[in-house]
Specification:
single chain
Length: about 375
C-alpha cells in the first residue's frame, strides 16, 4: 500500500482539504485572463466566443456521431479509436499553437511520475465516455441518450461520497428527487428504449462523472498545472495507449473492413469536432464559475434534446417529454442548491475565523 504522502493518495488528501470547491479548469490552467475578462464573466467577448463554439461543436459532434453510426454503419470501436487519436494529434499541435484557446506551452515542464500515472486513470475514463456514448447512440434515440446524460449530478453525488466521503446538504439531496423521477419517466415511456442503449448511456454518465472527479483530484498539485491543450493531449494520449489492446480484442473486423475513405473522413471530422468541443468547454471554465458552467451545460443538453427530435424526427410520448423537462428542472435545482450550500459553508468558515481572531485578540 503506497504512502498517502505520494501520488494519487496525496492528491485525494489535497482535494479533500480544499473541499473540492475549486473547478479543475481554473486550477489546471492558472488563469491568464485580464481583470476585465474576469469581472465580465460570461458577458466577456472570449466567454461568448467559447460558449458559441462549445455549443456548435457539441451539436455537430452529437449529430455527426449518430449519422456515422446509423447511416454510414461505422464500426463503433474503430470509430472511438479514430476520435481519440485525432484529438491526441490536434491536442499536441494546440499545445504550441493554441488558436486563442488558453496559453501556449513555452517550455518543457518536468512533471512527477504520479502525474502520468494519474493521466492513465483519466485516459481510461475518457475512452469509456467516447466508446459507451457511441454504443448508446447506436441503439437508442439521441434525445433519450442526452436525457440520461443530463442526470449526471446524481452520479456525481454518489461518486463523490464513495471516493471522497464528501457529504451534501439536504437541499442538494432533495434536488436529486426530480432528476431520478424524470429519468424513470423517460425510461418507462421512451419509444426507442433498449436495455443495451440505456445501460451504455448510464455507463457514459458514470464514466464522465468519474473522469471529472479524477481530473480534479489528479491535477490538484502545483506540479500538475496544465493548459487546456496540455490536458487534452496527455489524457487523450493515455487513452490511446489503453485503447489499442481493447480495440484489437473488441473490434468487429468484418464490419471494420468495410470502412471506405468517405466513412474514414467522417470519422476524422468527428474527431476534430470532439476535440474542440472538449477544449472550448475547459476554456470557458476560465471565464465563469463552476455553477454558471454547469447551468450552461444543462441548457446545452436541453437544446440538444429538442434539436435531435427535430433533426431525426424521433417520436416522443407525452410522459417521456414531461420526464425530460423534469430532469432538466432537477439539474437546475441541483446547481442552485450546490451554490447555496457552498455560499453558506463559506459564510460559516468566515464567521468561525472572525470568532477565532477575536478570541486571540482578547487573550
Amino acid at each position: 500500500m503506497p504512502s498517502k504522502k505520494n501520488g494519487f493518495y496525496k492528491n485525494i488528501a489535497y482535494y479533500k482539504m480544499t473541499g473540492g470547491k475549486s473547478d479543475v479548469g481554473r486550477q489546471r490552467t492558472g488563469s491568464s485572463l485580464s481583470e476585465d475578462d474576469k469581472s465580465l464573466g460570461l458577458l466577456s467577448f472570449g466567454a461568448i466566443v467559447s460558449l458559441v463554439v462549445w455549443y456548435l461543436t457539441s451539436f455537430l459532434t452529437l449529430f455527426m456521431n449518430k449519422y456515422t453510426l446509423t447511416n454510414l454503419q461505422a464500426e463503433a470501436v474503430l470509430f472511438s479509436t479514430v476520435q481519440i487519436v485525432v484529438s491526441t494529434i490536434v491536442g499536441g499541435i494546440n499545445m504550441y499553437w493554441p488558436c486563442y484557446m488558453g496559453r501556449a506551452t513555452r517550455e518543457c515542464v518536468r512533471r512527477p511520475f504520479s502525474f502520468y500515472t494519474n493521466m492513465m486513470f483519466v485516459g481510461l475514463t475518457r475512452f469509456l465516455v467516447v466508446f459507451l456514448g457511441l454504443i448508446s447512440l447506436e441503439y437508442v434515440a439521441v434525445s433519450f441518450t442526452e436525457t440520461v446524460k443530463s442526470s449526471a449530478p446524481l452520479f456525481t453525488v454518489v461518486i463523490s461520497f464513495l471516493m471522497l466521503r464528501e457529504r451534501n446538504g439536504i437541499y442538494v439531496q432533495l434536488s436529486l428527487i426530480p432528476i431520478m423521477t424524470g429519468l424513470v419517466l423517460c425510461s418507462a415511456y421512451e419509444i426507442s428504449f433498449t436495455l443495451v442503449g440505456f445501460l451504455a448511456a448510464l455507463g457514459t454518465n458514470l464514466a464522465e462523472c468519474l473522469q471529472f472527479v479524477l481530473s480534479k483530484m489528479s491535477l490538484s498539485g502545483e506540479a500538475s498545472r496544465t493548459t487546456p491543450a496540455e490536458f487534452q493531449f496527455y489524457s487523450c494520449f493515455a487513452s490511446t495507449i489503453l485503447q489499442i489492446p481493447i480495440c484489437v480484442v473488441l473490434m468487429n473486423y468484418e464490419q471494420a473492413s468495410q470502412t471506405t475513405f468517405h466513412i474514414f473522413v467522417w470519422m476524422v471530422l468527428n474527431g476534430l469536432m470532439y476535440h474542440y468541443q472538449t477544449m472550448t468547454a475547459w476554456v470557458l471554465m476560465e471565464y465563469v464559475s463552476p455553477v454558471t458552467h454547469s447551468v450552461c451545460n444543462t441548457v446545452k443538453r436541453a437544446i440538444a434534446i429538442w434539436l435531435s427530435v427535430l433533426v431525426f424526427g424521433n417520436s416522443v410520448t407525452l410522459l417521456s417529454g414531461i420526464g425530460t423537462g423534469v430532469v432538466i428542472l432537477g439539474v437546475l435545482m441541483y446547481n442552485k442548491a450546490r451554490d447555496f450550500e457552498q455560499r453558506r459553508h463559506e459564510r460559516h468558515e468566515t464567521r468561525t475565523l472572525l470568532i477565532d481572531n477575536d478570541s486571540k485578540t482578547v487573550v
